[in-house]
Amino acid sequence: MAEHDYYTLDFETRAIDTKMSDHAALEPWRRRQGKAEIMSADILRPDGSVLQIVNDDQKLFSYRLKSALEEMKGHVCFAHNATFDVAWAIADLQPDRCGAIPEFIQNIKWRDTGLLVKWLINGQLAEFTRFGLSLANLVKTFLPEHPDCQAFLEMKAQGVRAGENQAYWLERGTMDVKMTYALAMKLMAKVPVSMRTGLITEFDCIVPIANSWITGFRIDRKLLDDNNEFYSKAKTRIASELGVSEAMFSSPKQLGKFLFADMGLTPHSYTPSGNAGTSKGDLMWMEYKLRLAGHDDKANILKKILEAKESTTIFSKYVKTTYEALEHTGDGYIYSSPRIFGTYTGRMTYSNTTTSKDFETDEKTKFKTSIAMHQIPRKAKRVRQMLLPPEGFMVGELDSAGQESRLMAIRSKDQVMLNIFQRGLNFHSMTGASIIGMEYDVFEERRKAEDGEGHYTEARQRGKLTNLACNFRIGGKALSEQAFEKYEVMLDISTGNHLVKTFAKTYRGVPQYWADVIYTSKQAGYTEAFGGRRFKLTDWQTHRWGTESSAIMFPIQGSGASMKEIAISELSKNIPAATFALDLHDASFFYMREDSAKEIFESAESHLNNIDYEKYWGFKSPIPLPYEGGYGYDFSEIK
Residue of 250, 374, 382, 494 with fewest CB within 10 Å of its CB? Predict the structure, then answer.
């Protein structure tokens, strides 16, 4: 793209409510509350001039901002942390929570210098060093020769609070857009051809993801109160029955004393520091061993402790934190700050806090704005129930079915796996049939005759467990432990070995893929996912197993991240009435107006099931990559 086609943009924001001066400027959803605003907008135009719009009158400012954004129609506009700026723009120019995103915002080709850099440097070294993606650090690293570099870094280091010293912020906004432009110009030229489509697809997600941040999640206060009573009472009841303090359930030291000193139990494992393990897995194994030895009385105590620990975790992460977030947000909603490219594989994560820094003491204060949305357990129905769409809306979910297995089939080119998905066969049944040495057709006939319970149904479940665990290298011992700790299925090590060997024998292309991708990654210096995202590998000598594992896993999990971004982009462009709300596990959630939810959901489902992946990945998918799901009035009804 030619130099003259680039714009860059930066907003400086401030609190209106002086009581919120240490955090509101970082929370774009406060704009709709009337508690914060954009103080100034700086736009570097293609001719090199800078348009600065100062907010001395809100109505006039919004009018001028709209005009400036309309000028950028069809053009590329870079911002640093563009999700933040776009969220503020939407909140300023669309007052309705679930109102349509203004076309003049959607018509801009938004780009992000932070994401650009992450695509270029993503790798073991960047992860190990925790390379910072602040604009100051990127300028220092990539533009040391720039004539304004030192002045820019000195200005950034001054530590002026948002909203104070307006002259400082006006000058800083102008410098920000100039340095963002210089950074974009230098680094866009370094993007490999194979990476460009995937990078642009991620950029296309900026607008819908920014909009989801300021839309938030409505909380059912009655259900929250019910959950508070349910989980706190569970802890209190079990603590009373055992004659211990509730604090013990969240204290490894206290729990260790109770288990190994007071009860005299033998530890299942030890931590790296040499302490007896008290994790969920440790407790599950100890309970199992006690039952085998006939000590049901002690085993029942461990079962109660496990129940109390689970209640303690859910109470702390999803009940107590929700109360804290609601107190902070003040409008009955919680707001999760999205992190595009949040993990090294490209998956999105969320932050549930706003962090404010006192520049005089260097101390940080964290304000809860949400819960750990991307960590909500699949089975935590009570938590999902209290999450609601905005009034007048329903929430839909579309889940990528068997995503990792299908992506492994494509990447490994294993003919058995490809045939299963091409013909619409039951993948888990195929593996289950292989485990017990039976022809697939006979196995399926007998399984279906069991009507959900019996030997063949159980064999299919074993096949499912095997498929979920064996895509990536795993041994029989590790599989038996994973089966027990994750799925509460007891397998001895010999059975685990049998399942691992059966998988490798049935799907021979998968172990061959492992060997091939390790070799090619060593030669190239990186491993690569569909869509061009890369992960640079440098620790072959010092961390060989982990590096090889990354070479194997990244192409599959990174391709899953690509699918998710393709889905978000496709729905945003083609089914705008499906308003993106949340990325969780392998699913995308979206809001739909209640009176047209059925029509919107069916359109979204049909669209995602007919995506042309060739334009994103450069080849036609040899198998279907289906989406399935449902919709309802809260986040639990659709699972």
Answer: 494
How many residues comprise the chain? 639
Cβ-in-10-Å burial (0-12, 13-18, 19+) of 531 comes to buried
Q: 76 with 111: CB under 8 angstroms?
A: yes
Nearest to 517 by CA among 546, 553, 485, 489: 553
Residue 378 has a pLDDT of: 72
Q: pLDDT tens-digit profile of 294-332? A: 999 999 999 999 999 999 999 999 999 999 999 999 999
C-alpha to C-alpha distance for 412 and 449, rounded to whole angstroms: 34
Question: Which residues have a Cβ under 8 Å from the Cβ of 522 and sit 6 or more positions away?
Answer: 537, 540, 551
Spell out the residues 6+ positions from residue 462 whose beta carbon is closer than 8 angstroms to its own. Answer: 431, 432, 435, 489, 499
Pairing, β 76-79 against β 6-15: parallel
Average pLDDT over residues 499-528: 97
Burial of 138 (0-12, 13-18, 19+ CB in 10 A): buried
Closest to 316 in 3D by CA, of 221, 225, 232? 232
DSSP 161: P
Give me the sign of the Cα torsion angle 178, 183, 186, 189.
Answer: negative
- The answer to whether 402 touches 427, Cβ cutoff 8 Å, is yes
Query: How many Cα neighbours within 13 Å face the side chain of 626?
Result: 8
Q: Write the CA distances from 410 to 107, 195, 530, integer angstroms.
A: 35, 19, 10
**Residue whose tokens read 């659709």:** 638
**C-beta neighbour count of 357 within 10 angstroms:** 13
Handedness of CA 46, 50, 55, 59 (dihedral sign): negative
Structure tokens at 572: 């945003």
Contacts of 202 (CB under 8 A, 6+ apart): 115, 119, 340, 341, 346, 565
Tokens representing 440 are 């697939």
- DSSP letter assigned to residue 179: H
HEC sequence for 452-495: CCCHHHHHHHHHHHHHHHHCCCCCHHHHHHHHHHHHCCCCCHHH
- Contact by Cβ (8 Å): 366, 337: no
Q: How far apart are CA 365 and CA 162, in angstroms?
A: 15
3-state secondary structure of 395: strand
Please list, residue by residue across 80-100, b when 16 or more beta carbons sit within 10 angstroms of its beta carbon and e when fewer do: bbbbbbbbbbbbbbbeebbee
Q: Which residue has the higher pLDDT, 584 or 387?
A: 387
Residues 580, 570: contact at Cβ < 8 Å?
A: no
Cβ atoms 227, 371 nearer than 8 A: no
**Torsion angle (degrees, nearest 10) of CA 252, 257, 259, 262:** -160
Q: Cα(87)–Cα(29) distance, rounded to whole angstroms?
A: 8
Report the predicted TM-score, pTM, of the whole model to 2 decimal places.
Answer: 0.94
> Comparing C-alpha atoms, which of 171, 125, 153 is closest to residue 535?
125
3-state secondary structure 410-449: HHHCCHHHHHHHHHCCCHHHHHHHHHHCCCHHHHHHHHHH
How does DSSP assign 2-16, residue by residue? -GGGEEEEEEEEEES
pLDDT at residue 380 in the model = 81
